[in-house]
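Anyone able to model this chain together with magnesium ion?
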Amino acid sequence: HVAKAKQSGAVLFDPAFDISSQGNLSLASELRQAIATNELALYVQPKIDLQNGKISAVEALIRWRHPQKGLMFPDQFIPFAEQSGLISLISLWVLAEAARVEVAWRKLGIDAPIAVNLSTRDLIDQDLPHKILTLHQDAGLALGGITLEITESSMMDDPQRAQQTLERLSDMGLQLSIDDFGTGYSSLAYLKRLPVSELKIDKSFVLKMEEDENDRKIVRSTIDLGHNLNLKVVAEGIESRAAWDLLASMGCDFGQGYHISKPMPAADFPAWLQRWQAQELQTA
Ligand code: C2E
Ligand code: MG
Ligand code: MG
Ligand code: MG
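re: yes, here you go
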């Protein structure tokens, strides 16, 4: 009753679920095992400059290569990880893996900063800034290149503590991005309070903006709002060239979406980037 299997195969978690129940205990131990045995995989999705098509960064999106269930998406285990406390282990794995990938890309001459998604629990851990600092010093990377994407709903638990952690991260030189903007409760309050430098318009507005005039107006106003607050604005969910052009005409800075690329294993990115750059030269 706790984890309801949807027809699509995705798993939904009841927020009031019992962490000690049998099914959850085994998911918790499977997830621990997955971290230890490297079943987790870092996928990346390119983020482009909408005015010239150049790659400005990539976003790290986690996958779980489950030995029985196949490729699992974050919606199928991140909510559980958040509620069971395993998220802090996962986030550290993602941050370390992102640093490792970054170093490997540098050796290939690729300069694409990797943005990482963070959760509530991470912000409650007041040692997180120090952990990130150590990780990056060990890898020989500068902190200035890192962007952390924060989801609004992940800030609900203990907003004051989250804010303190975010301020320390920002003081260290990390860039903070508000993810899924417009879908939470206090988007505007967060923009006012938090030291963010980027705002990501949720894909639910972008996906239908060509047909839906209201969505288009929301997208346009959000871009203007971001710019008025001196933020860079990123649109998610670009599924067509028309959407890219429309966003570019509205002055949106950056974009991501299936039209540019679906998330891919990090190891595939260097070859993808070469193809992208070759294509760009042709159309320039
Ligand atoms: P998000 O950070 O807002 O990431 C965007 C999601 O939209 C990704 O789903 C991406 O694959 C999908 N997407 C990208 N372009 C398009 C498009 O053009 N059309 C459509 N329909 N979808 C698109 P994904 O990878 O399943 O991740 C879902 C969410 O899981 C993420 O949303 C993020 O909140 C969370 N997540 C992913 N990786 C991590 C992680 O390492 N740590 C934490 N804490 N959360 C993560
Ligand atoms: Mg994100
Ligand atoms: Mg998002
Ligand atoms: Mg999301």
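The chain is about 45% helix and 20% strand.
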